[in-house]
């Protein structure tokens, strides 16, 4: 392990843990052990982001509170620890007595009053006990892992975020012990050689402590000794786990907007994170990198300071924001875009497991079929959205709406040009639109024929959509198309071409959503 400049930290035994300047990084292993309380069912469920997806894999992100994780954001004396603490919702919570020595997490102390035990919602662990246990465990772990080389993300101090895009990502390899020294020295306002390296800041991000499913991106855990110290939470034991990662910030940090191809539970052990979420349905508005690139799961938008001249559709994106502190857990569903802002000295772990993506690509022979089906559905949805947008733009003020088809026909005939006539059509509800078409075909066949010849691609899409919806009189199409006379076949061919052009335009919008 590299030495800390000027004043390297000295090893401390259990009796030295009363030092008020000591950071609970020494007790973080103990905190990791207690992170598993998210499986014990005593969470507090927060708000859920709304999603347009209805499949189980697109479950709304849920903010929960793992209340029995010790909140160690500051060092306080014993008297302060026994004061009531505020819960997440701001209410007061009476701190129960510390658990009996040797009592396992989740067990009931039979020496306590049964009523008291049953009404205690969440156990709070006294800080001194955690500090002593954590110090001892950290000492053992640090001896075993301090020499392990880990990949550390880095950025210039002037940069506002750690970029995950392939061409912009920066990282260095350091011994884990060096990074821990850097972390502790920075917290206690000591100096360390990493603080002056090329004006850079460092962040231990996505460091694998368990790899259940090795692949080309991660073959084995870097710090497996951590995972040896605690069990996988019960609520995740039936999941097809892929990886568990450790995250440690020294300075306030921010990741760029991206999504993961896994279900994800993020647990904060110390500090605070703010997670900004966008649903998969917002992908087109988030300007992802091209799907063929190595950064396909990253957005090109700086969501903090967006350039709307370059990314105008971003203004249509709908974000939801969650703040998770020590003891909180957040479910980030597979495919949901997220950006994470972390306070200084934040420590967290996250759990990844396979879901929909793995099922889709499991049989390579079926992947092309799935891709075509999904693309067809995306284009269909885009066509429907575009038609809805067209009809919305044609809505007239209340005083200008048409009482019946006669007034609509009159407005159509007196409109100054083709655009004005189309505006009249777009302002009509479906029932009136059908009635006006029939009326024009029967009594104004020349005007009707001329209107169809000059109809825009969008207007043809609206008309043919009403023709294909059904619920029409049996002779309706015969009337509106029969009025075209000798030119009927040629005009119908033009209508088909314009309808196809509309679908091509919608497909182009879908293709752009995969990145350019």
From TrEMBL:
Biased amino acid composition, Basic and acidic residues: 10-28, 75-92
InterPro entries hit by this protein: Cupin_8 (IPR041667), JmjC_dom (IPR003347)
PROSITE patterns: JMJC (PS51184)
Stretches the record annotates as Disordered: 1-28, 40-120
Pfam family, one: Cupin_8
Record-annotated JmjC domain positions: 221-370
Biased composition (Low complexity): 51-72
Protein name, entry field: JmjC domain-containing protein
Provenance organism: Phytophthora boehmeriae
Lineage: Eukaryota, Sar, Stramenopiles, Oomycota, Peronosporomycetes
């Amino acid at each position: 392990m590299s030495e800390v400049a000027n004043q390297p930290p000295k090893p401390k035994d259990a009796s030295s843990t009363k030092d008020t300047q000591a950071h609970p990084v020494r007790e973080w292993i103990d905190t990791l052990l207690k992170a598993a309380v998210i499986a014990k069912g005593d969470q507090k469920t927060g708000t859920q982001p709304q999603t347009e997806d209805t499949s189980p894999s697109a479950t709304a992100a849920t903010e929960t509170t793992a209340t029995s994780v010790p909140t160690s954001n500051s060092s306080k004396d014993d008297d302060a620890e026994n004061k009531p603490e505020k819960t997440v919702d701001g209410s007061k919570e009476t701190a129960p007595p510390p658990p009996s020595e040797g009592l396992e997490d989740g067990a009931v102390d039979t020496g306590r009053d049964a009523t008291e035990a049953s009404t205690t919602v969440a156990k709070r662990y006294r800080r001194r006990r955690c500090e002593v246990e954590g110090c001892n465990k950290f000492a053992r772990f640090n001896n075993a892992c301090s020499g392990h080389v880990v990949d550390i993300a880095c950025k210039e101090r002037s940069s506002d975020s750690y970029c995950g895009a392939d061409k912009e990502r920066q990282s260095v390899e350091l011994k884990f012990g060096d990074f821990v020294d850097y972390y502790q020295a920075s917290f206690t306002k000591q100096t360390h050689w990493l603080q002056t390296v090329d004006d850079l800041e460092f962040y231990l991000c996505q460091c694998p402590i368990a790899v259940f499913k090795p692949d080309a991106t991660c073959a084995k855990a870097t710090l497996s000794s951590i995972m040896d110290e605690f069990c996988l939470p019960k609520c995740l034991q039936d999941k097809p786990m892929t990886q568990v990662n450790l995250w440690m910030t020294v300075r306030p940090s921010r990741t760029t907007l991206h999504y993961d191809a896994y279900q994800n539970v993020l647990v904060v052990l110390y500090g605070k994170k703010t997670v900004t979420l966008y649903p998969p349905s917002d992908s087109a508005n988030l300007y992802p990198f091209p799907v063929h690139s190595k950064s396909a799961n990253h957005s090109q938008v700086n969501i903090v300071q967006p350039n709307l001249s370059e990314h105008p559709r971003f203004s249509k994106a709908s974000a939801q924001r969650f703040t998770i502190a020590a003891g909180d857990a957040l479910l980030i569903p597979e495919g949901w875009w997220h950006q994470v802002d972390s306070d200084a000295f934040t420590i967290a772990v996250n759990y990844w497991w396979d879901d929909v993506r793995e099922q889709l690509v499991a049989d390579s022979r079926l992947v092309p079929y799935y891709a075509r089906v999904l693309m067809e559905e995306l284009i269909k949805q885009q066509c429907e959205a575009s038609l809805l947008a067209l009809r919305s733009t044609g809505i007239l003020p209340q005083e200008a709406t048409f009482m019946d088809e006669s007034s609509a026909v009159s407005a159509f005939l007196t409109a100054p040009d083709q655009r004005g006539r189309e505006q009249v059509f777009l302002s009509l509800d479906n029932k009136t639109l059908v009635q006006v078409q029939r009326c024009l075909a029967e009594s104004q066949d020349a005007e009707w024929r001329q209107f169809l010849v000059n109809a825009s691609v969008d207007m043809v899409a609206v008309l043919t959509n009403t023709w294909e919806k059904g619920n029409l009189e049996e002779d309706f199409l015969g009337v509106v198309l029969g009025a075209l006379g000798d030119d009927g076949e040629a005009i119908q061919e033009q209508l088909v071409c314009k309808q196809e052009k509309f679908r091509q335009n919608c497909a182009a919008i879908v293709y752009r959503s995969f990145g350019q």
